[in-house]
Amino acid sequence: MRAKKTAADEMIRGPRVESAIDAATSVLGFDDAPSARRLRDPRELYPKPPFEKQTQPWPGLAGLMTPRPDHGEESYRGSGRLLGRKALITGGDSGIGRAAAIAFAREGADVAINYLPEEEADAKEVMTLLGEAEVNATALPGDIRDEEFCRKLVDDAARDLGGLDILVNNAARQHARKSILDITTEDLDWTFQTNLYA
Fold first, then answer.
1. Is residue 82 within 8 Å of residue 106, measured between CB atoms?
2. For residues 114 and 141, is the Cβ–Cβ distance under 8 A?
3. Per-domain residue ranges for the chain?
4. Closest CA relative to residue 193, chosen from 151, 142, 152, 144
C-alpha cells in the first residue's frame, strides 16, 4: 500500500527535481530557456582541432591559450550544495583547480586558492570570478614543494576562511619528454615533490 502524497512531500521533491534539471541543463548542453529543453550535441559546443601551435614557458597561463579553456566560467551554475563549507584548492588558478574553485564558489563554499607566484595573472581572474559568486575567497601564492610553506598554507587558509572542511590536492607538474633518457634529476625531483610529497 502506497502512502498518500502530502503537500510537504511535494515541497521536498520540487526543489530537488528543479535542481537536477538545472544541473542537467548546464552539463548536457540544453538551451538556456527553461521552457525549451532541447538537447544540443556537445560535439558542436566547443572548439575543434586543428588548433594553431602555441607554446608558453612553464607553467603557462590559461589566459594566453587559444582557444581559451572552458573551466565553467560561463556555463556552470551552482545551486547551494556547499553552503557554509570552506575549501582549500591547490593549483586553483588554472585547469581542474580553477574549475573546482569556480564550481565550489558557485555552490556556496568559501574558497582559498593556492598557486605559484608566476601564475598571478590567472589567479586574479579566478579571484574576480569568486568575488562574483559572493563568497569569502582568498589567494595564497607559494610553492607547495616547501613543507614549511604547506603548513603555513593550511594555517592561513583556515584563518582567512574561518576553518577548513575540504582540501583539494590538485596542483601537479608534468613535463613531456621525447625519451625517458631526457628526464633530468631536477625534473623528477620537482615532479615528485609537487605531485606526491605536497
1. no
2. yes
3. 9-46, 81-198
4. 144
Question: What is residue 167's three-state secondary structure?
Answer: strand
Which contiguous run of DSSP H or E holds residue 143? none
Strands, sheet with 137-141, edge to edge from the N-terminal-most edge strand: 137-141, 110-115, 86-90, 166-168
* Reported pTM: 0.70
Q: pLDDT tens digit string along 78-118?
A: 899 999 999 999 999 999 999 999 999 999 999 999 999 99
Alpha-carbon distances, residue 140 vs 10, 22, 58, 117, 179 (angstroms): 44, 32, 20, 9, 35
Tell me if the domain spanning 81-198 has CATH number 3.40.50.720.
yes
Neighbours of 194 (CB within 10 A): 19
